[in-house]
Amino acid sequence: MAVANPTLRPAPIDAFPTATSSAQSETEKVLLQHLPADPTAPPTLNKNPHLQFLIRNIVQGFPARYTSQDASQPWLMYWTLQSFSVLSVGIDPGNKQKAVDTIMAWQHPDGGFGGGPHQAAHLLPTYAAVCALAIAGRPGEGGGWDQIDRKKMYAFFMSLKQPDGSFLVAHHSEVDVRGIYCLLVTATLLDIITPELVEGTAAFVASLQTYEGGFSSASQPYYAPPSPNASNASNTTPTLLPSPRPPLGEAHGGYTFCALAAWVMLQPFLPVPASSQPHPHPHINTRSLLRWLVQMQGAPAELGGFRGRTNKLVDGCYSWWVGGAFALLEAVGVKVPPAAPSSTPAGGEWDDVDDSLLNRKALQEYILLAGQHPAGGLRDKPPKHADSYHTLSCLAGLSAAQHRVFPSPERRRVLEGAWKAADPEPTTTTDALRKRVFTDALCYTEEEGTETIVGGAGNRLNATHPLFNLTMTHTDAMMGYFYGQVVPRRGG
Amino acid sequence: MIPPPSALYSARQEWADVVPLPQYEKANPLAPILYSEECLSFSGVDRHTRAKNPPDRDATDYLRAVVKAGEKSERVLQLTEHVIRLNPAHYSAWQYRYETVVEIQWPLDAEIALMDELADKYLKTYQVWHHRRLILTLSKKAREELAFVANILQKDEKNYHTWAHRQWVLAFYNDDALWAGELDFVDTMINKDVRNNSVWHHRFFVVFQSGVRDGEEDRERVVRRELIYTKQNISLAPNNASAWNYLRGVLEFNKLPMSTVATFVKPYTVPLPATLVDLVDVENPPPGKGAELPCVAAIEFQADVYEEEARSASVDKAVELWKSLAEEHDTIRKKYWEYRIQQALLSV
């Protein structure tokens, strides 16, 4: 029996059990029951039941237990549509049109999208709605893309901006790096990202990194007391102190993904142009970040899934938040140099091509063995139910573990060569920035011949963009349209 | 607390002046939620009405209508509370509730009392904590807040929002009276579960990230205290990533070399000796008799100590340790340990 395998030893308790170690042991017990009886049998991705799960939700509707998601309707739509895309399933024009009409009912008259019709605009549903439109929408009348009010959306974004470079997720709401990620994706896709919008944001994101290496959700700003001789104090921007600027909350997988992706999207805007900023050159510690990310992968007794915080349990959703974050490391300078032939481990073909820093094989096994619900849809871990959120997170994580997607210098050159300045031509600086944002985002490419698919070709999923979680095709189409560019065809 | 309404809004006289606003003007949205009457138990509503007009839809139809009309009144507080109880993540209801509280100058004490109940019930929603923060910002009453948070933490000792809220209370009010008992509180929580990473993070926040507190001006003494504290806790349960991460954090934050604790780490990198010497060494507490050694985190730490020395002989020793992690003690991270070897060899 497979449990006798010495690499499956349980997490050590040191004869000192606590609530954390007890929960851990219970989870390991359950997970080990999901090891296949025959370890040589390839695990299968049960695409058909998953498709049935998605179709049931989208056509018949979500069961009543989703009522708690009443303020997250764009998310339900995005999770479902993007799951279809990752599974390489297209949507018929009739349902696409229905999707667009439904999504557009969520746009707020003052800009941005809400969690449902007549709900207040909020950064999270704005991301979900715009990404859902990238999948289901198109230019022209009734297609959604031209009906997005980008001017008002920009004004909405600016109205949420805080003096420490962060953004509220909605009026009177919290600051949370998920909101910043959502804002930056939307602004990048729709060509409304500007130096004004993101001034100070990189320094805020950097302030979220904790001593563990991962990132928290927000940090607390401190400001210098207003100068007594300032005549009109309410009119002056408070001066942010460089320290203390403590993170509120510990390092966490979801926030770390959002912070890292935000950091990557902010690269074209660094260093911050205004020299009056207290931190003209914010930086993050990529060494401790990498260490934290790899430490989140569970042991063989946890089937190699990812956890979201130190000493917490593995959960399928971190397959994407943490597993998917590895593809962004190259953009921040963490790159595995090609191994010299002599030092290549003698582990067969797999090791020859796999230069990633996570254990791609183990992550795929976790999703295939523990992440799939027998009745369709994917989940946190057994014996939990499947839901839309975990279905996309697990599928996107599985996709990230199958494909090596990286910022290709070659693709960047092709995009730069094809770039056309807007007409009438804006200032050179503006044009250079737009071009940089565009090429930075679209140069992500799948490396040829590096697919590593556990269980065989039948389990293959579409590659997904590591910043946006949209397919390359949908990303190219939407950005090409809003930037007024013809995106050169991808090779192969 | 305002008692929950006993009938659908559409059947109530006091709401007769409001025309409910349905979600979708078009009949057939894609991916609709199939709202159910089961979400709420209503007394005095006949089955027929319920089936036709589910209560959660009924309440949100009226909320949309009052938001559209801009009404801010006591009955709006009642309505938003109702919607929040149906779905505590309904951020628009929270947002409108806050605006109403401010506009009609609703007593903040009453609002916090309601929040005490809702935080307890809906611990995992962002909004329940943020609304509390908005009200506290207005009322400036922080006195009892830490005790409230400590009590809520009993229910879920790793709840992200609760910890972030506690840190906000301390950082925002920045009042020495609030800070005074914080290290004792951390101690109590770590004694309950030494593996609770939220508490370790909180300790770091308290000791290092919020400025120097009264009585802590001697930073060398503080660092020494933290190192001893962490080492003691590692000796209790050596395979505890939270404590090792804290140890690394203390050293890095204070720009101390990793070799500062090399003597302590060494015994944790080898199997437990058959006979344990019973000695008290405060600086270098040895592993206890239940320790499962060697400990992966200790081997990793030891390798970093060697790498830090940056001499070729010591890098060789680091490489040996990384190899043992890649091939024996921590095979899941094989690629990462190989990467470390490659990087170290490149830099020699």
Automatic annotation (TrEMBL), chain A:
Residues 226-245 are annotated as: Disordered. One of its GO terms (biological process) is prenylation. GO terms for molecular function: protein farnesyltransferase activity; zinc ion binding. It comes from the Eukaryota. InterPro entries: FTB (IPR026872), PGGT1B-like (IPR045089), Prenyltrans (IPR001330), Terpenoid_cyclase/PrenylTrfase (IPR008930). One of its GO terms (cellular component) is protein farnesyltransferase complex. Binds 1 zinc ion per subunit. Keywords: Metal-binding, Prenyltransferase, Repeat, Transferase, Zinc. Residues 229-240 have a biased composition (Low complexity). It is an enzyme of class 2 (transferase). Transmembrane segments: none annotated. Its cofactor is Zn(2+). Catalyzes the transfer of a farnesyl moiety from farnesyl diphosphate to a cysteine at the fourth position from the C-terminus of several proteins. The beta subunit is responsible for peptide-binding. Belongs to the protein prenyltransferase subunit beta family. Heterodimer of an alpha and a beta subunit. This is Protein farnesyltransferase subunit beta.
UniProtKB/TrEMBL annotation, chain B:
The keyword Transit peptide does not apply. Its EC number is 2.5.1.58, 2.5.1.59. Belongs to the protein prenyltransferase subunit alpha family. Pfam families: PPTA. GO terms for molecular function: CAAX-protein geranylgeranyltransferase activity; protein farnesyltransferase activity. One of its GO terms (cellular component) is CAAX-protein geranylgeranyltransferase complex. This is Protein farnesyltransferase/geranylgeranyltransferase type-1 subunit alpha. Keywords: Magnesium, Prenyltransferase, Repeat, Transferase. Its cofactor is Mg(2+). It is an enzyme of class 2 (transferase).
